[in-house]
Amino acid sequence: MSVRAAVAEDAAALSVLHGASFREGWTRDDFTTWLGRAEAICVVAEEAGEAAAFGLALASGSDAELLTIATAPGLRGKGLGRKIMQGLHAEARARGLERWVLEVARNNLPALGLYKSEGFVEIGVRKAYYPGDTGRIDALVMERPVATAGGQGRA
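Given the sequence above, the corresponding structure tokens read:
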């Protein structure tokens, strides 16, 4: 398994992964646009030459804002999310960013577990932010300094 910076040619594969993970998956054109932005931070994990997971963030001022992270359904629970976070974090540090921010659906327990283990803490709630099968779902807003990685103080 290798993690590398995403390039424009990855847009189709990222769209497939995103669509398998979210009810309103982003299109190839969406990813082409995101990857073309100078402030984009995007890494992809590959297994046997195929995209297995990715994460996309934006540099905004001194913040790194995590927009999305997705893993192929058959590969979830194998630590790919953590590898993606580590790749994104390395790029955020290289760019001199100071703080990570993200929002996550309150009921997305695997993502919440990853983010908490990576040292993120809740700083707010956006009520009824995401659509759900049985109604709207709150988004938790979380943050973590870029200077520290992981809940155990890893750098």
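Strands lie at 2-5, 40-47, 50-60, 63-71, 99-105, 121-130, 137-145. Try to locate this feature in the token string yourself.
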